[in-house]
Amino acid sequence: MEKNRKDEQLEQFRVDDRDQKLTTNQGLKVTEDEFSLKAGVRGPTLMEDFHFREKMTHFDHERIPERVVHARGFAAHGEFELYESMNQYTKANFLTDTSKKTPVFVRFSTVVGSRGSAETVRDVRGFATKFYTDEGNYDLVGNNMPVFFIQDAIKFPDFVHAVKPEPHNEMPQAASAHDTFWDFVANNQESAHMVMWAMSDRAIPRSFRMMEGFGVHTFRFVNAEGVAHFVKFHWKPLLGAHSLVWDEAQKISGKDPDFHRRDLYESIENGDFPVYELGVQILAEEDEFKFDFDVLDPTKIWPEEDVPVKLIGKMTLNRNVDNVFAETEQVAFHVGNVVPGIDFTNDPLLQGRLFSYTDTQLIRLGGPNFHELPINRPVCPFHNNQRDGYHRMTINKGPVSYHKNSLANNTPATSTPEEGGFEHYQEKVEGRKVRNRSDSFRDHFSQATLFWNSMSDIEKEHIIDAFSFEVGKVKNKDVQQQVVDMFANVNVDLATKVADAVGANPPTGGGSDVTKQSPALSQENMVKKPDTRKVAVIASRDGDASQLEKTVQGFKEAGLKAEVVSDKLGNIGNLPIDHTFLTADPVLFDAIYVASMNDEKKFKKETGRYVTEAFNHFKAIGAASKFATILDGKEGPGVVTNDNGEQFVAAVTAHRHWNRDI
């Protein structure tokens, strides 16, 4: 695969320590690395043992502070290609030149949990993309949900304090099902829309490869003539957006807490590169006030039926990181990393993020030179008068480090907009200095109801179950009641069923007259493909090897990832067994197919467990006709009891079969 510019730049920093001699960090070859320098074989260690001190000091400082939010993450390299020039709207070079392939680095993450938490918890997922453009780095720092819990960044510390483990007992980890979070929700009702998303299936994605991404905020495109448009960014996965079921997600957290990163890593290693299309919603400035919501409100979407998403390019993730710490952990994103042609709006949450990201990187990465780390360096040269500080890598020549100067002919010099210099959009601003919020931000429930109206029946059922679980874990009865009463403003039926589940009083008021729907919000309307779906093919070692090979090959030709599971490792004919019943689990697969069985009681029991678990999670299950009795009692959609491989592939492609009688 041809290397992109970022790969070439990183090449100088990659080191393979295999077959090399051990040295200190200064390059001094070391004769001994087992014993510290002592005064006698039983004596004290000497202060002059510089090798011990260097080794131990580095170890003592190996851990940088993890991110307060988005601590649990995984990342990959890739490239972005533009379908058509957007020069009508923006002068950003990477969005106007279709001949360019722009290197990217994408980090996916959970929000609430620590770096060691499980990955399939109910949570928002970060979707942060760094574009290494010829004009500098551009960071699109978003989530897999298009809205957020709050409208003003001044409330972000409050929200995070509320959703994090409670300080008196440091529980629960990576979970919002506790008193302080729901107390925050009930007393900060701007969170209503986002909570609906968080209680939906969007909060438990099947994989990073099967979830949408959103820039959340309203930004500006500015073209070469200085004309601006409002814009929202979307990432649309080619595989569609799909989710786990809650019981399955909880079990995966125990069976494989690395489930999402493993899925991404293995997909890229196997050459099944994740692809996302970049979409934009564009709005003329004169249309800013034509809607029944404020386009700058980060708790609101622009419904796709009102403002269509235009697909303008695609991003392919095609290389895993070489070192998780050096790349995934040290990468520093910032919404303020923009290029000419992309600018900001007065969204108060966005405005606050422009301040906080720099502050965060300073404390997390130990100083002002985090931009010099290999993963953060732009591919274009950078020149300024910044000097010194922790971890400075640039060796600046000459005596001048200030502007203006005559000793260096006043260089580095500023650039005009025509030369590519960034120029802030000249928006007219006037008014008194106030601590307040526009009245146009005060409708907190209309779009929450829109979201509810847009869900299929099964998605609504999942939302009710999610509320019932989360609010059911709340110990304070008053908080439970506040939540019920609050969400009656979204939908009375929803609130009534939650009240019944948690033992609260049914709502006495509320209701909404919003009837509008947005079909684009329902995952049931997403594209469904068989590509890369994992199928556990259960087979005994004494089974028909020839038939098994045909079955596995047929599944692979259809795009499925067939992995053989048996009671013991080894081979069946020429086909290696990938997993045993102990080393894998049905929740780790998208479907189960029984190719062969033996008469051992334990084998039948484990096969039955796999089939039952998958059936209860509404997945496709199938068996060769000779072994169809293992599916007895499992009837309904997605159950294939014949040798028709195409029929089974179609069942897997459907993702879930919700209309089973379970």
TrEMBL record:
Active site: residue positions: 70, 143
Reactions catalysed according to its record: 2 H2O2 = O2 + 2 H2O
A biological process term (GO) from this entry: response to oxidative stress
UniProt xrefs under InterPro entries: Catalase (IPR018028), Catalase_AS (IPR024708), Catalase_clade2 (IPR024712), Catalase_clade2_helical (IPR043156), Catalase_core (IPR011614), Catalase_haem_BS (IPR002226), Catalase_immune_responsive (IPR010582), Catalase_large_C (IPR041399)
Essential cofactor(s): heme
GO molecular function: catalase activity; heme binding; metal ion binding
EC number: 1.11.1.6
Annotated heme binding sites: 67, 107, 156, 353, 357, 364
Region named Disordered: 503-523
Catalase core domain boundaries: 23-411
Its biological purpose: Decomposes hydrogen peroxide into water and oxygen; serves to protect cells from the toxic effects of hydrogen peroxide.
Protein name, per record: Catalase
Organism this protein belongs to: Paenisporosarcina quisquiliarum
